[in-house]
Amino acid sequence: MSRRAWRVIQMLAGFAVLFFVVRSFVKNWDSIRATPLEWHIRPGLLAASALCTWGMYGLLILAWRSLLRDWGNQLGVWTAARIWAVSNLGKYIPGKVWAIAGMAIMAQKEGAAPWAATASAILMQGLAVGTGVVAVAVAGVETLEQRYPEVRIGLWILASASAVGVIVMVSPSVGRLVLRRLAPAQEDRSPRVPTVLLSIAVNLLAWAGYGMAFWLLARGLLPSAVVPLRLAIGAFAASYLAGLLFLVAPGGLVVRESVLTLMLQGAIGLGPAAALAVASRLMLTITEVGIAVPFLLFSRESARVST
């Protein structure tokens, strides 16, 4: 692909992301303003919520970089963070492939093998789903079972499918088969077991951190609506997974808010639950766009750091 064509594609993708992000932001801001509740905004807690989320992003970036390195592809810390943060905005475009596709293409532009960039992105997505199911099973399944008694069976099926997928992807025999077809000249490689275990631990920690960030958000906006920390973790994980797996919703819009409201309304009431669901969407948009802004403002040539 020529450099000019690549720039045109980047511009078009950027405008598409910007359109859907702005639309989501405006829609959620109007909804949160229209909710008849007594807000008590505490900037310190809101800042702590954002920082907690950004910290989890940093851990996930390092885990993805480690998987990619095990496949023989080394990226600098700044470069890996830029690819992860910018490609993550692809989730706001309808369809679920844009974030993964963007990560793979950007990594390839930095010298990573196309198959390794794609495989590492898909593997991280599989680990996110699998560990998210664990988070829901541990922290939120009781709340879901009150309305949907069969949900535990669905969680077992989803967890089993994720586990099988991860095992297949990291299996040396599968890795050799894929390499023979996609990159015959490469040496046989597969992620090391310690790297995969570290990535699993990081994803579990990330779900707990996201739940903590949501808990801080609730305390920073509606302190009278007491959300237990365990429920915050389970509700956030369940809502995020629902939005992720519902393929036609950009960024899980509406689906995620509906599940979050459903899980919180028994503890704090329908009105506060709906308001916090919308506020969570607004905060998530701010943090996802916010982490990408530094990489969009500074050129990679002037800002890249060595590992």
Q: How would you describe what is shown here?
A:
Helix content is 77%, strand content 0%. The protein has 307 residues and is mainly α. It has one domain (42-300). Helix 9 (193-221) crosses helix 10. The longest helix has 32 residues, at 3-34. It starts with a helix and ends with a helix. 43% of the residues are buried.
Low-pLDDT segments, ≥5 res: 300-307
Which overall shape is indicated by the principal axes computed on the Cα atoms? globular
Strand content: under 5%
Distance between the termini: 29 Å
What radius of gyration results from the CA coordinates? Answer: 20 Å
Major beta-sheet overview: none
Number of domains: 1
Structural class: mainly alpha
Instruction: Report the mean per-residue pLDDT as an integer.
Output: 77
Key traits:
307 residues; mainly alpha; 77% helix; 0% strand; globular; disordered C terminus
Summarize the structure.
This protein has helices at 3-34, 43-70, 77-87, 98-109, 114-139, 141-145, 151-170, 172-182, 193-221, 229-245, 255-268, 270-297, 300-303. With 307 residues, the chain is mainly α. The protein has one domain.
Topology:
Elements: H1 3-34, H2 43-70, H3 77-87, H4 98-109, H5 114-139, H6 141-145, H7 151-170, H8 172-182, H9 193-221, H10 229-245, H11 255-268, H12 270-297, H13 300-303
Helix pairs in contact: 1-12, 2-3, 2-5, 2-9, 3-4, 3-12, 4-5, 5-7, 5-9, 5-10, 9-10, 9-12, 10-11, 11-12
